[in-house]
Amino acid sequence: MSKRPPREYQRPAMQKSGLSLSGKALIELMQAVHTKGLPFRFNAGGHSMAPFIRDGDVICVSPLASRAPGPGDVVAFIHPETKLLCLHRVLSAHGDRFLIQGDNMPEEPDGMIPRETILGRVTRVERAGKKVRLGLGPERFLLALLSRCGLLAVIRRYAGPLYACFSRSHVSCEKR
Amino acid sequence: MNEIRMDMIFSHSSDVVSREIDGALIIVPLASGVGDMEDDLFSMNETGTEIWNMLDGKKTVQEVVKALAQQYRAEPAEIEQDVAGIVTELLKRRMLVEATAA
Fold first, then answer.
1. What is the predicted ipTM?
2. Do A41 and B36 touch (CB under 8 A)?
3. Mutation for testing the B interface, residue in A3, A4, A8, A17 having most B CBs under 10 Å
4. CA-nearest residue of chain B to A38?
5. pLDDT in tens, A138-174
6. Contact A32/B21, CB-based, under 8 Å?
7. What is the pTM of this model?
8. So what's the architecture of A23-167 in CATH?
9. Which of A117, B4, B36, B66 would you call most buried, defined as having the most Cβ atoms within 10 angstroms of its Cβ?
10. What is the helix, strand, coil percentage profile of chain B, to 5?
């Protein structure tokens, strides 16, 4: 009597996943794509980098390659406490550690983040199919300085009209 | 490619990355030079995942079919037809390349 194979057969199938990836899955896929030296594009969620990155913006994260993150860069990193993917701005560099904080989270700095937990640099933000121009260009240095001095929140509070103008093309942080 | 022969060997294209995450295989096409979650992201069922993992540039299609026939309650002819089908689909999407036998 022949031995029967133990498992029910299911025909092989492949489909567009339709998955909304988050957390560990998102981090793993980003790392996998970065090992090929290619950028990773995904949909951001959250408000911690508002107004420069907003909830629902499409973000492109490029591998760091040879250039270390610098002040003003928005980086994707694994948050040391939550272990979730986070996109926040580098305020200052201290060797292989970086002071990082969300533009919209002046009361909740991420602290000193080691380079090995930084996955890549945000190189493009799209909103409604259009490139967001503010937040990643030369103005990023000023934004990092203002944030470090605690002035970004003040400006947001008192420079409403200007900020509203900025917010047409803003940022958000994403913990996913 | 018109026909999948049983002596053919295939491997994953360099234009994709794949990861098994929480038991599910996710394939990300990189053809546009970007790993794009906003574009096409593919997943496989269990059998498809096993086939994908066995298309490693070493095993022939026949060896893949034989391995599956030892694991599942199905006729080898049915498995052979299904493997050829999924390989054809993967080739069409440029997720596989034919590998030269060593």
1. 0.84
2. yes
3. A17
4. B34
5. 888 888 888 888 777 777 767 656 655 555 544 444 4
6. no
7. 0.77
8. Ribbon (2.10)
9. B36
10. 35, 25, 35
